[in-house]
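user: Please supply your own:

assistant:
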Amino acid sequence: MKVAALQMVSGSQLQANLDQARALLQQASQAGAELAVLPEYFCLMGQRETDKLGLAEAHGSGPIQDFLARAARQFGLWIVGGTLPLQSPVPGRVANACLVFDPSGQPVARYDKIHLFCYDNGRERYDEAAVLLPGSEPVAFDLSDRSGQRWRVGLSVCYDLRFPELYRQLAADLLLVPAAFTHGTGQAHWELLLRARAIENLAFVAASAQGGQHDNGRQTWGQSLLIDPWGVVLAQRASGPGVVLADLDWARLQQLRQQLPALQHRRLPSAPCQP
């Protein structure tokens, strides 16, 4: 199955971001991708954290969700919509939601980011909990590729990457990590953490990132990656908008899991994943 991790440099204007995303989705489709993954905050990197509140949509209705469904139908793609703000029951806070659409444009999964980023090094300060309401349930979905092979696909977002217990619960063949890592933390840990999640779960990883200088002054690390279950980087892009493509080999996944049956050797239990 050919998978595309889409790297963006989103700004503070919704329509410009959707136009950038559409161009990348079209490019991925023309290159033969079956699944395309947009980055976290693909629709908005605002001037202020509270800008997300003004863009929040009700689940199942709104221009951003309509855009994703329409693009999935038009390009015949499974689309993972990075994240977008969805309304929550708590005033002044939204869910940072990752939505999945099948090639007919139907929504098939929703994951709300569980772990909210908090960081302060004296120069940069972030506290997502000020405007985001965390999710509580791991989410995975089943994807049948064009050959008829069924893949278990696990959802996560950005800061989730630092919590390996989440990925154990997903029990997936392919792990997705849309993200907007800061430049400093990305430079230090991004690839290392992604390769670790691939190796310890014997799973493919597709990580789609924000990567560049944004009009709000923030700089994100980029380095969108596709990684195989042995930790081998299959494809990557350093910075700037673009499409990172690789063919994921089901036979190699099964071969590696047979050669090193580490997943069968687990002794500590984990909670079941939400279907």
User: Anything to note?
Assistant: The radius of gyration is 17 Å. The chain has one domain: 2-265. Residues 183-201 form the longest helix (19 residues).
